[in-house]
Amino acid sequence: MTEPRMTAGRYPGGHADAMNLMKDRSGDRGCTMGRTRNVKLAAAIQELGLSQARVAARFRAVAAENTVPELDNVTQSHIARWVGGTRPSGRAPSILCETLSRGLGRIVTPADIGLALEEGAVLQPPEWSVDTLTTLVNLGGTDMDIDRRRVLARSAYSVAGLALPSESWWAEAAERARTRRAVSQHTVAPQDVESIHEMTLFFSRRDQLRGGRGVGRTALLAYLRTEVAEHLGGQFPSEELRRATTSAAGELAYLAGWTAFDAGEHPVALRWFTVATQMAEEAHDAPLAGHVMRAMAHQAVDLQQPMEAVRLSASSMEGKRYTNASWRERALLGVVHARGLAAAGRRKEALATLLRAESDLSRASEGDDEPGRVWFFGEASLAHETAAALRDLGDLKGAEKQFQHSVRTRRAQFQRTHSVTLGYLGAVQVQQGKLEAACDTWGQALDTMAGVQSGRARETVVQMRRALSPFRNRAGSTAADLDAKARAVLGLG
């Protein structure tokens, strides 16, 4: 990590005395003389509602969890100096961000507290610099607590949170995990890994059938932060078993992120995706890392961040993330990259990438999946994502054809995704002036949503009502009847 540059200024004792004044072993850089008060940090601490002494105590606890002994003597005076304008150095800003993030229930970045990077400096986003196991337990607890989750979910989906770590982070991830001290007496066995895979399959199928909201998600989170966390913090008889356990846990963390994404809780989802990527790297599981980064790109597309989607999806296809993946998985990575390119207006590249994804999927055979995975990417999924890319390119006729193909080939157990596809199909039909066809499609979508608790499915209903607004006041019309049905699905009476 590159330290921020500093200027000694003019001190009577010369440069050496200036350096001594400007840096102590607790991570301070600079003195408060002539400094501007850090009003952003002061406001964050005020919002937290804790004294500076208690903030320092929490800071030390986070530093200890992340094995940063040089920060174990941070006291109230350090917090006061940082508020006064002294800039903390080394890992102190990351630890401070994590401390405030936990207390405030939202992601706090260095820029949020007046510690934006100086020119030439490199600082890991707080999510990447914190121990994976610690994040898993704390984030799981936040996500399970409805009130705390709502606070986090209402925080802004920040592009800063999409920043990927430095090359050195990727290179050192597995070694950091290998040397992590056991915190549990449990000795991990192959059966534990099998159990995680079985539970992932169960929760994934339930998510596909019922959506990302409800008791299924609560049970998933409880399992993650208790049994899975105990396994990760346990003792491993071999490095191979450690990697297998971490990979299985990473896939389940990814699923936690996907359920949050489906529920429309995007800041929560992004944090889970980050944890899942960390675990994938700790397991040396490049295809899993690519799969999760692909989900981050998918989320960025949906939230109108096309350039970030292109960057993330391109990263998901780099090196072993692509070459070590199955043909089916390669097709998924490619089609999401195409969606990002389409949203960014890069039509020629998007179409070429779609053709490549189609070619990759054609090379997949029955059962050609990642070992132990429960990913469900097939012909219907490819058609759905291709349709979304064509829609973003303005090819509504092509998008309609692909959405229809997805509807025809979707298996019955994928009720949530099927309802979303139908919602999107109706939208491209009405955009072409096919109101009757759209109403018929949307009627099927509403029927399919019975028992589904999904933020994405719900959003298609909201968009449906918006599109029907010019027609729904006509008494006895199909549009009016459909709107009444949509209101009932939304719980509007």
Describe the structure.
This protein is mainly alpha-helical. Among the domains are: 14-128, no CATH class; 131-284, no CATH class. Helices cover 66% and strands 1% of the residues. It is built from 24 helices and 2 strands. The radius of gyration is 25 Å and the shape is globular. The termini are far apart.
Write the layout of secondary structure elements.
Layout: H1 14-22, E1 28-29, H2 39-48, H3 52-65, H4 76-84, E2 87-88, H5 92-104, H6 126-129, H7 132-144, H8 146-154, H9 167-178, H10 190-210, H11 215-232, H12 239-262, H13 266-282, H14 286-302, H15 306-316, H16 320-323, H17 327-343, H18 347-362, H19 379-392, H20 396-409, H21 415-431, H22 435-448, H23 455-468, H24 478-489
Antiparallel strand pairs: 1-2
Shape annotation: globular
Order of helices and strands: HEHHHEHHHHHHHHHHHHHHHHHHHH
Q: List low-pLDDT spans.
A: 1-26, 117-126
For this structure, the quaternary state is single chain
Structural class: mainly alpha
The mean pLDDT is 81
Number of H- or I-type helical stretches: 24
Distance between the termini: 56 Å
Q: How helix-rich are the residues, as a percent range?
A: 55-70%
Rg is: 25 Å
| Main pleated sheet | 2 strands, antiparallel
Strand content: under 5%
**Strands ordered across the widest β-sheet:** 1-2
The strand count comes to 2
